[in-house]
Structure formats: structure tokens, C-alpha cells
Amino acid sequence: MSDKHLGINRRDFVKGVAALGLTTGMLGIRNMAMAAEGSTFTFGRIRETKHLDPHSSQLSSSWHIQHMVYDSLVTLDDNFEVQPSIATAWEWQGNTLVFTIRDNAVFANGRAMTMEDVTVSLNRALKSKGNPWGLLLRNKTAITAMDGNKLSIEFNGPNNVALSSLAATLVCIVPTVEEASGEWDPKTDMFMGTGPYSVESHTANDRWVLKANPHYWGGAPKTDTVVVRTIPQAQSLVAALRDGSIDAASFDGNPDAPALLEGAPDIEISRLDTTDFYYIGMNAVAEGSPFLDKSVRQAVAMCIDRKQLIEFAFAGRAGLTYGWTQWGLTDDSKLPIREPDIEKAKAMIEAANLPTNKIKVLVREGDTLSAVAQVLKQSAAKIGLDLELEVVDGGVWAKRTWGTNPSDMQMVVSRYTGFAHPLIITAHWWAPEMSRFTKGYVPENPEYSAALNKAVLESTGDEITPSLQKAYEILNEEAVKVPLCTDIDTIAWRSDRVTMSPSREQAQNDILSGVETFEMKI
Amino acid sequence: MLFIAARLGLAALTIAGVATLVFFGMRLIPGSYADLFFPLASEADREAISIEYGLDGSALEQYILWLGKLLQGDFGTSLVTNKPVIDEIVQRLPLTLELGFLALMIIAFIGFPMGIISGMFHKKWTSQVGRHSSTFLMSIPNFVLGSLLVYAFSVNSLGLKAGGWAPLSEGLMENLKYAILPAFTLSITGLGLVLATARSSVLGVIGQDHILAAVSRGLSPKDIFSKHIFRNALIPVITIFAIVAGYLLGGTVLVETVFSLDGVGRLLVNSITRRDYPVVQIGVILTATAFVLTNTIADILYGIIDPRVTEKNDG
Question: Three-class SS of residue B58?
Fold first, then answer.
């Protein structure tokens, strides 16, 4: 038998294949920007930024980065109180909100921000496709730059949600001159604003590298470079923290994070409470849905044992809430449905005489949501309902829940961002005539809408909270959407490598709030 | 040459079929890019977004448009990052290729010799070890092994890294610190499979009459092994090797996710969940091409090892 066939010597062929493999491996030299020692702060997180244009970014994972780059007119402190940012002061003059705009804000490219940047940015934001802030500021009539660095936003009546809603990155200030000239493209990942950092490079699903904005109005950031790495596995985050590959990490809602970090030397852990919350939604619109019957919805709401849910699904690390009360403005002890009452709920289900006890539940994929759904399944079984869980990805979930009318589901389990003020979410996300995307499963309720309109657009001062309380009581009694608990994040950092004071309360997923003050020790 | 031409033609047809299947398959998944990324937008806004991203029109119209661009070398732009798809993939390809290459090396230099030894010494304890080891290795899902390794090495690293990556430019040793655990995880099923196949191939050959005849002719054990046993046992192993190489491409999806590695596998999974159609389409085409090429190379290798294969096909 000859060693040669097809003009190829076998030995040479094998050598060639080996050489090809090695060459390919060598070509694997990627231009990864690794964190340099010294003034580089490296942060790990589970989720990746997916939205690029800040004015249409509706996913909280995008805000992690955008908060470091873009400034809004105002910002929030840990008590959700509005604080100065691009605006140094503000006051209501009748139904007009007048801001004093700082004169020392400079974009990362060195150009000083102008009043035109502010007005064009705000108008751009409110016109952006999919930006729900147009609804929040729906009674706005004009945005005007005035003499003396003053900006006015005129409304045709009160708007009790306006000021705190202007803290979001969805209405941040962008470099409008550069956008017009093509130097800055909002559809790319090269974020540039007046904030403490701007994006130097980005490798999707891997890392963002941000450089300090030397012109930042708050003073030069203490760390030159911030690297934000996406590490989707909590265990890998722990390993990276332990071996010093990263200096700090956010574990999102992973309830096991403290246990995973137990005993690790030089690691500090901080609990970050948020206004975000988990909820169930029941389809009270689609023909044939068991939840057209209010008593069935109420029975489900009544069977939920939130304390057990928090213990099992969150290892005890979630905030108890019965309504939309996490901002502390309203009193959830007055809500009609609170503690579980299994006997009553069971009797209500029996009286409803449902054709089947099987309920299809659409669950957005994610470890925590699946755990929540499992606990709910056990609770529902106690009142004779059999929840059939269908775990789907975000796209399928969004299509069947929000993109179809009537919604193609009977019950959903998901999570909402809470934002800075209860009116932002309850006034708009809850009322189908406002939010539109919930029309497929939330019926219109004129009584609720009237209470909300009163709270948002008609009340002033002390009148706001009673109107809000009334709206919450209606929501609770209607039981179409039922809040389960608030979400928490765990922030851990290497105390031997970095000095940092992470935020303790968050309403806008600004998990690196104050990053410009973080200081490396090495 | 006819043999090679036929194989290449079949490979091209397979790739075209996969490309078409993926294009329409992606559009059958409920929830579009606009549904996912602009959930709060009005219906009119979502339609406008679809037009802006070239996702309007029927699937067939989109397919014809996409195919036309593809044939002109335009691979498209990622809907999520707004960067050229080819850049997104090429950037991650080295990591995935290196992982696959290392896994194959582990399989070739550990699994194959172990299988041969296990088969050759079939009356000794080594054979039993080989048999049970192959079953054990094949029965461990790589994501389970990966998760266990990540957990174990996150507590006590022993110098190895359970997550993240250092490119070769940072030095071979630094690179291997990151690559060993995922490469071993990726290799585990292939290791068992090649071990089992090599063992059974050797056992199958060793009992045949021509081996007994060779022994009785007084050939040396070395000659019997190299001329009769090894050569005959190699063909099924190459077949399995080609299948394993294809499997490794799919296996990288899980391994890259478990070890948080930014490779092509993870890019594809993320792109599917984000409805980033252009990235998925090109990514799957490239993966399918690699798989088909691996099998084509295996076919050609048969020809080199056993010329009867090409002679039969050449007619």
C-alpha cells in the first residue's frame, strides 16, 4: 500500500492540519482591552447592555452603562429625592417647571453643553419611538430655553410625575450638534455625554471600557478607566472576584450570592434594595379566560403566601409588598387583599365552577422567575388550581403578552422596573388606555383611571397621596396585576482593591451610582 | 477527483439548505426584534421600527433581498450592536476555534491511545478501566461537569481560572490557565466516545483470522499492530472523530455559557434570544460550513487511509 494518494503525503497532510490548527489558534489573539493595574476599576455583572440609543432604551441592563455616560436634568438620591444634575435648581411657577441649567457641563469631546443641546435632547427623547416618557409628560405644551441659563417646561395643568421622571436616562442630554454632524451616532455603542465617563470600546456580551471625562462638571473621576464585564454565571462572578479579575460585581436578583461569597477574604457585600418588583398578571380580556371572573382573580391573589415566596424563591432576600407601596407614600395595610386566606379562596374557586382547574402560566425565562412560578404553583394547588408553567424567552413572552390583543396567555409571571415615583408606573403601565401594551389582558377601569388622573394631573400637595391610595385599593380589589415582592441586588467588592460606597436604594438600576468617587487602592 | 467534486457539491447544497432553513426558522419564532426591544412602543412605532431595520415585507421578500446581498459579499449588520455581522463573528472565532482545537487534542492524545491500549490488552484490568471510563465520560453532560468545575475552582482555583479568557497574546501559559477547564469540559463526551470506539475497533480487528495468520507467520507484534490492527481500527475512529468535531461546535454553546466565554457559541445563543437575525443567519451558516467541511475532510481522509473508498467512488 502506498503512502501517497491524491498527490498528498499522509505525514505532510497531518503536519499541515496541525500547522493550520496552531496558526488558527495564534490568530486567536484578540484585541481584548484588559484592565491595567492602577486606576482601572473592573466591574462584573450578569446582564449585557442591549439598547444603545438612550432615548429608546427600555431595558434596565442598558441603563447600567448609560447612567455613567449621560446626565439628565436631575438625579435621585438613595431616598428617591430629586437632586441637582444638569439642572442646579428648579421651581414650579404655576404650571411651568423652570430649571436653572449649569454652565459648566462639557461633553467628553471637550465641547461645552449649550441650552440648545438641552432643548433638542428633551424634544428628541419625547419623540423617540417607544419612549413612554411622552405619556408621562403628556400635558406638556412647550420646552423653551430662556435667558440666563433658564429652561422652562410648560404644562397645561399640574403634573405630579414630571420632576422625578426627568431623572431617567430616557430623557438624558445627548450631544445634538455631533449627532447632526454625524460625529456621534446614537445607534452605535460609542456613548458620549456630559457624565463622568464615555465609552472607549465595547465588545458585545463581553465588556465595556469607559474612560474618564476630564471635563466632568462634578470634578475629575478618581478612577481613569472603568471596565464593565458581562459574566452571566454567578459562580464565575464569584471566581473572578476571588482571583482579582474583577474588583466588584452585581449579582442581580440572584438570591444565593451571599452564600456563594461566604468566607471569601477581603470581600464586602452590600444589599441594594430597589423599587423593581415581581408580579403576576391575569388575563381579564381574552374570551374563555378563567380570569374574566373577578372572583377567580381574587382567589388567586388571596392564595399567595408572600412570606413563603420570599423565603423559597429569594432565600429571604426580597422586600415584602402587597401593593405598589415600596416608595413609602401609601399605606398597604388598607388594601383589601393582603394575607393568604386559603379556605376563602378555595370556596371562591369552587363557586366559580370553572370548566377546568388547569391554568396556563407564561413565565419569562430566568432562574428567579421560574422559582417564583414554582412557589405560586404550590400556592395555587392549595385552592384546587393546577398551574401549568410554560417558560419562554423574552421575545416570545413579549409577543404573547404585550404584542397580541387579546394576549395569548392566561397568566404571566414577570418583573417591572419601579422607577423613582409610584405614579410613573401605576399611572401609566397599569392603565391600558395609557400604556396600550397591556390592552390585551387588562380591561379599562374608568374608576381607576379617574383616580389616577386626579393623582397625576389634578391634585396638588396633600391631595396626591389619598388619590394614589384610592387607585391602589382599586387595583388590589380588581386583582388583574398582583405585585408579589420587590427585587434586591447584591453588590460585592474587593475591599483590599477598591474603596467604594455603593448605593443602598435604587429606583432606576443605576447600580454604579457614584462610580466617579470609587478609588482604587492598588 | 470526481470523488472530491461530488463531496464538495454535496457540501455546498447542505450549506445552502441550512441557510434557508435558518432564515425562515428564525422568522417563525414568536416575538420580533421590535416586540422584544420596543415592548412599550405603539403598534405604529413598532411597524416603523421594522421598516427601519429592514424587517418589513414577507419572509420570502426578505429572504430574496438577504440572499442577493449575501452573494455580493454583504453579510449584513447586527440589529443590536449596529456593527457588521462578520466583525462580530470574526472577533469571537479565535476563542471558539482554540477551545475546539484543544478539546480535539485532548480527545486525540488521551482518548484514542487509551482506547487502543484498552483494546490491545483486553484480558487485563486496563481493558475494564477503559470500558467503564468511556461509559462514565459519555454519561456526564458537559454543562453539569462545567458547572461543577466552575464551582470547585471558584473556591480553590489551583492556578486555573474558572471563567473569563486570556488571549494567546498574553502568553501561552496565561492562556492555558483560562482554557484548560472549558476545553476539558468540551472534550468530555468526545473523549468517552473515541475511547469506546477505538477500543471496540481494536477488539474487532484483533480477533480476525488475518491477525491470527500474521501471528502464525511470525510477524513481530510491532508489525502486526502497525500494519494490521492500527490501520484497520483507524477508519471507524476517523468517522467518530468527524462527528465529534461537529459536536464540539455545538458543545461550545453550552461551555462558553457556563464559563462566561465570549465565543461564537454564546454569541449565537444571545443573538437568538435577541432576535438579531443577521448574526444568527451568518453564524449558523459558518458553523454549518465548518461542520460540513470537517466531514468532507474526513471523507477525503478515508481515501488516503483506504484507497478502496476513492476507487469505488471514482468508478
Answer: coil
